[in-house]
Amino acid sequence: MVATWDGIVVIIGAGISGLFAARLLREYDIEVVLLEARDRTGGRTFTQTDPSYGFCDLGGAYVCETQTKLLKLAKQLGVETYKVFGKGQTVEDFLGKRVTKHGALPSMGSLLGALDVNNFWQLLDNMSRKVPLRDPWNAPCALEWDCMTVKEFIEKTCWTRYGKAVATAYVQGILTSEPCEISLLFFLWYLHSGGGVKRNIEFEGGGAQEMKFYGGSQKISDKMAEELGGRVKLNKCVVRIEDCEDHVVIGCADGSEYKASFVITTIPPALLGRISFNPPLPPLKNQAIQRIPMGSIIKTITFYKRPFWREKGLAGYFNSDKGPVEEGYDDTKPDGSHPSIMGFILADRAREVTSLSKSERQKLVCQQYAQIFELQGSA
């Protein structure tokens, strides 16, 4: 069975990008169909709701003031934001030393550590501003930077153990990958696109983790899907795209097919390798797909009877080189209900803990939080 519409555009992926593309095309009266492999919309934004914990973002959640297009869209859809709790001191646990500080930036514990980290930040910011956002390959040292991993750059730039530990944790935190897996050129481009070193890590003052959405980030996708109605097709895993000169045929795993004039794919590049293209994609495109893997991250949310860290004058934010959780935030609901800490398990550590059972992971996380927040007894 082939579903056919003249002049239709088929969009693959019902995450925010795919749904927004469909919404934009509908403004010009262009007919669209969205094919989504999962049984829900939202893509990498995924919100679960339950009376025992309220709404809970298991996928992408944070937004900041520079993401103007997303904030404008949320406002149009009636989805409001709230600020992440950030009052009080934060905790840093590096190289076996626990210290409290203000903000998400490193404590700069020693004079040499301060000089080392500050030099690293300044150098990154200066270099990143030289990378054009639209064509990073035209940066002055593009070839040299693209041939170097971020790990190599850290080894060449940082001279203290503290500096190297902080730099490594920073890379893991924002790209969910190890420094040895990332091109320096890509890293610099990412920093430039995100507004620089400080904005990418902070949760106050316009930082990337400053705000979240009431009801969860998936609400944005769900509301766009409601507007589009039956144009959104769930459980439609695309496995084949065939160019037939005057039209395109899109085949799904369940045997259904769609005929379209144009196709827009919004899925992660790594997933394109699961689709059979006829004619095949250009060789360089195929090689690029093979070299753009997904990062590795596990999100863990731990609920408590009360926000005991606030009672200690702590903001709930911490960063650590011990693991399993490298970075954590206060994830209590804006009305003060369901006190919780959200933590990121990143890169190699995320891969390592997948071999553990759920109870083993929970035990490790709770033990780490007890040390981080100097927790004694039941909270």
Offer a quick outline of the entry.
This protein has 379 residues and is of the alpha/beta class. The chain has 13 helices and 19 strands. Helix content is 34%, strand content 22%.
Strands of the widest sheet, in order across it, are 8-7-17-18-19-16
- Structural class, from helix and strand content? alpha/beta
Low-confidence stretches: none
Backbone shape: globular
| Count of distinct strands | 19
The fraction of residues in strands falls at 15-25%
| Percentage of residues assigned to helices | 25-40%
> What is the residue-mean pLDDT, rounded to a whole number?
92
Distance between the termini: 58 Å
Q: Which radius of gyration do the C-alpha atoms yield?
A: 23 Å
Number of helices: 13
Characterize the largest beta sheet: strand count, sense, and whether it forms a barrel.
6 strands, mixed
Outline the structure in words.
With 379 residues, the chain is an alpha/beta fold. Helix content is 34%, strand content 22%. It contains 13 helices and 19 strands. It has helices at residues 16-27, 68-77, 111-128, 142-146, 150-157, 161-175, 184-193, 197-201, 218-228, 283-290, 308-311, 347-353, 358-372, and strands at residues 2-4, 9-12, 32-35, 47-50, 54-57, 81-83, 89-94, 97-101, 211-213, 232-233, 238-243, 248-252, 257-260, 262-265, 276-278, 297-303, 314-320, 327-330, 340-346. The strands form five sheets. Strands 8-7-17-18-19-16 form a six-stranded mixed sheet, sandwiched between helices. A five-stranded mixed sheet has the order 1-13-12-11-15, with no helix packed on it. A hairpin with a 2-residue loop joins strand 7 (89-94) and strand 8 (97-101). The model has no long low-confidence stretch (mean pLDDT 92).
